[in-house]
Prior knowledge:
Layout: H1 4-53, E1 55-57, E2 60-62, E3 79-85, E4 90-93, E5 113-119, E6 125-135, E7 142-151, H2 153-188, H3 190-204, H4 216-262, H5 268-296, E8 306-307, H6 308-322, E9 329-333, E10 339-340, H7 344-361, E11 365-372, E12 376-383, H8 390-397, H9 410-423, E13 427-432, E14 438-445
Parallel strand pairs: 9-11
Antiparallel strand pairs: 1-2, 3-4, 3-7, 5-6, 6-7, 8-10, 11-12, 12-14, 13-14
Helix pairs in contact: 1-2, 4-5, 4-9, 6-7, 7-9
Amino acid sequence: xxxxxxxxxxxxxxxxxxxxxxxxxxxxxxxxxxxxxxxxxxxxxxxxxxxxxxxxxxxxxxxxxxxxxxxxxxxxxxxxxxxxxxxxxxxxxxxxxxxxxxxxxxxxxxxxxxxxxxxxxxxxxxxxxxxxxxxxxxxxxxxxxxxxxxxxxxxxxxxxxxxxxxxxxxxxxxxxxxxxxxxxxxxxxxxxxxxxxxxxxxxxxxxxxxxxxxxxxxxxxxxxxxxxxxxxxxxxxxxxxxxxxxxxxxxxxxxxxxxxxxxxxxxxxxxxxxxxxxxxxxxxxxxxxxxxxxxxxxxxxxxxxxxxxxxxxxxxxxxxxxxxxxxxxxxxxxxxxxxxxxxxxxxxxxxxxxxxxxxxxxxxxxxxxxxxxxxxxxxxxxxxxxxxxxxxxxxxxxxxxxxxxxxxxxxxxxxxxxxxxxxxxxxxxxxxxxxxxxxxxxxxxx
Length: 446
């Protein structure tokens, strides 16, 4: 199932249905117990009424024909009573029980009370209450058991009426709750629908980033998507610029080759010049295409965070091997918890270019340190080399200001770092280091 709304609705409906069923079962059981308890109390009251009107006679207990409960005098009324002797023999039966086979329990000891559900031989269910007493009004006290039985059909009908009413109300409440859930879910998912709408607008080219304000639960997602879109646009610009640089760099060599070929003769010196220019062209093509491939390797997926300390450590170890003859001393003070939230290749290219320049131009010392603020972090790289003149910093950071990008030096690496850094919404700053050389500060958002 691919619909989040359908998943939530079906899950909620299943949970609600289970809850309603369990609630209905619990309520029905509670009501059934309450009804049975009420019936037991009524039967106990009937026993007390019989005890109040009973009198000791010559043959045992006798009761008046007119009883307080009219149902005891009506045949097959559903309420029956009898009195048993200590031996279990019937002493008296109510007129309503004449001709019926009502369930008769065993006689009870004085003070003993028993309430139970019993079935008569004809299959009728009864609620039976028996109570043992000692009758001491005569010359010799006698033990009797008063028994009152009532058909359980009345109690079952009462429970059935409650069950019907309960099902009606719970069903109506469940329906209202589902309607309310649909409305709440529609309101709760409104930010996601708005986000999907904005993404469709971005896909159509009418918008460059997500502009809406969203709940904090998905604000991180929208921020990452905006950063991803900005990075992708910057990567595309870098690729376009690289191809433009490649075309521009090939103009002069191609013009020279074209002019030489138009001479019609190829003396040794001319052939050597052509070969030299062809080698230069090949070098420029290889270099620029390598840059283009490096930019194209950036994935459009949200990259996992990269530990800056670990990445810089790997680069320093590699550069120390390359410049082993220079005996460079590197002091790195980078917080182990510092994270770069982006493509690892971009971080490696930025740090690689900065560290390579530092190793190349330093006299023997390089110092790295990190600093964090609330919304950004900074990596500072210093060396004790000749540094970069202040009037050259702006020129080295501007695209197209260098005469030959294939010449090794600060210009190429810094331009690449600036492009990547800008793509992530950061900045690159260059000034004079306390060590005497250049200090490059790379600042990126957290």
